[in-house]
Design goal:
The protein has about 250 residues and is mainly alpha-helical. Helices cover about 70% and strands about 0% of the residues. The radius of gyration is 18 Å and the shape is globular. The termini are far apart.
Length: about 250
């Protein structure tokens, strides 16, 4: 007997449940960061490693677009690249993230070089780029649906950084403020596209697995930070060491 797909509402609830159970806002590192419990070196390590993820998002989206034959989908999706890369002269999430790096005392050129990125961070992020490049379009789109859960973490991060850290100001937290308006636009389209195209039980399983995979990528990045810079503090070869890359 062929399994029957869930209704649209039931399937959406299934996707949202993945975030409720697995999104990285529940990771202990984020709880420390948002409550002021991180040292400045731990904040710097997070900024360096998260930049690697930010820098690869437009590359991931460009790889996705190279496979899309539908011009309407391309027109809508390409704004994601513009959001991160910005214009030729200014703007974009990558530039805003480097302002955060400068605010925490890091040389932006050092951060942009991606030297000091933890091996596990590089492995996880590169795996995500390959996933979106190689998988069918449905799971590739579904993997982006962690954006469903992003506005809450950005709101908590903005409040927590402003309350607990001297480096936090309108300029250094600009990346997160922009994502409060950018992410909902992206996810409204992405969620409806997945709901429209996941027509069989197998489709729905593939989409749910893709979203689960993406939550695991984000969680693995924080596990790597926790292991290297919190406890027991084992920085692997090639990982950033405090006092490196400072202004």
């Amino acid at each position: 007997m062929i399994p029957q797909p869930d209704t649209r509402d039931t399937f959406e609830a299934r996707l949202r449940r993945i975030g409720e159970e697995r999104y990285h806002d529940k990771h202990p590192f984020h709880h420390r960061l948002h409550s002021g419990g991180c040292t400045m070196d731990q904040v710097r390590a997070w900024v360096i490693n998260r930049f690697y993820y930010q820098s690869r998002i437009p590359m991931k989206d460009a790889a996705f677009l190279s496979r899309v034959e539908d011009p309407d989908l391309r027109r809508i999706w390409r704004s994601r690249i513009e959001d991160h890369d910005g214009g030729v002269g200014e703007g974009g999430g990558i530039r805003r993230w480097l302002k955060l790096a400068e605010g925490v005392g890091l040389d932006p050129d050092y951060v942009a070089s991606t030297r000091g990125v933890l091996p596990a961070t590089r492995f996880a992020v590169d795996a995500y780029v390959r996933f979106v490049r190689d998988q069918p379009l449905l799971p590739a789109v579904a993997s982006s649906l962690t954006e469903l859960f992003a506005p809450a973490i950005h709101q908590n991060r903005i409040a927590g950084l402003l309350e607990h850290y001297d480096f936090a100001n309108d300029q250094t937290i600009a990346y997160f403020r922009h994502r409060l308006t950018e992410a909902p636009k992206d996810v409204d389209f992405g969620l409806n596209w997945v709901l429209d195209h996941a027509l069989t039980a197998a489709d729905q399983d593939a989409a749910a697995a893709a979203l689960t995979f993406k939550t695991e990528v984000l969680w693995a990045m924080l596990d790597a930070l926790d292991c290297a810079y919190v406890s027991p503090g084992r920085i692997p070869p090639g990982g950033w060491t405090p006092a490196e890359g400072l202004l």
